[in-house]
Amino acid sequence: MDFSYKEKSLLVSLAITVVVFGMYFFTIFSNDLLESGSNLDIWDVIKPVVLVIILESIIQALLAGREHEMIDERDLLIEKTAYKYAYRVLSAGVFLLIVQLLIAGTFDRGDIFSSMGTVGLANVILLLFILAELTSFITQLVSYRRGA
Amino acid sequence: MSAIVGVHELSKRIGNHIRRFRFDAEEMSQQALADKIGVTRQTIIAIEKDKYSPSLEVAFKLAEVFDTDIGSVFTYQEPK
């Protein structure tokens, strides 16, 4: 398959995000590290974010060194559409989170986040951001593949 | 008909003769045309396939490259 520079760049970003945050969330959820009182601290959250930034910078620099292509109005339109979908995913996630917390607070029951500390809740919000980011990457890739 | 029209729906009504104009211009390559307009080759491909409707600026530049008017390069079909 013939991929443009933009598609390769998106595939790299998608792969890095899936691998780094996939491993991170798998470790967290499989070991119940979101429970309040676990050893998880703010640096455990910051580490994968920094790792993604470093990996992205290195690989994107290598990619740009080999081939460079300009960004035009169609790329910007595709990006804008992708952000629209990502925003919807993020909004829906945050909305559900707020509703869940409000219901739990009002009726004092059904709080699935009650066992989590603040770092646990921060991880749930981070997960929503990652899902929005993945939506953006996938939407852009689909648009480019369709030739839209 | 709804007042709001999707980009994809709109692009189906706007056709173009870019492929023919390129052929007439000594088989100008898509990359060469893209370089003249200042867009990527993928954008030229998308425009030729009627999958993307360019901005007015790009449409005018295309007409200018082929030394013709915008109406000769692009066609608009009124929805039935």
Any overview of this molecule?
The complex is a heterodimer of chains A (148) and B (80). Chain A is built from four helices and no strands. Chain A has 148 residues and is mainly α. In chain A, α1 packs antiparallel against α2 (42-66). Chain A is flat. The two termini of chain A are 17 Å apart. Chain B is built from six helices and two strands. By secondary structure, chain B is mainly alpha-helical. Residues 1-5 of chain B have low confidence and may be disordered. Chain B starts with 6 loop residues before the first helix and ends with a strand. Chain B has one domain (7-66): 434 Repressor (Amino-terminal Domain), CATH 1.10.260. Chain B has helices at residues 7-13, 18-24, 30-37, 41-48, 56-65, 70-73; strands at residues 14-16, 74-76. In chain B, strands 1-2 form a two-stranded antiparallel sheet. At the A-B interface, α3 of A face α4 of B.
Radius of gyration of chain A: 18 Å
- What would the CATH topology of chain B be? 434 Repressor (Amino-terminal Domain)
Ranges of chain A where pLDDT stays below 50 over 5 or more residues in a row are none
CATH architecture of chain B: Orthogonal Bundle
Helix proportion of chain B: 55-70%
Stretches of chain B where pLDDT is under 50 for at least 5 consecutive residues are: 1-5
- Helical/strand content category of chain A: mainly alpha
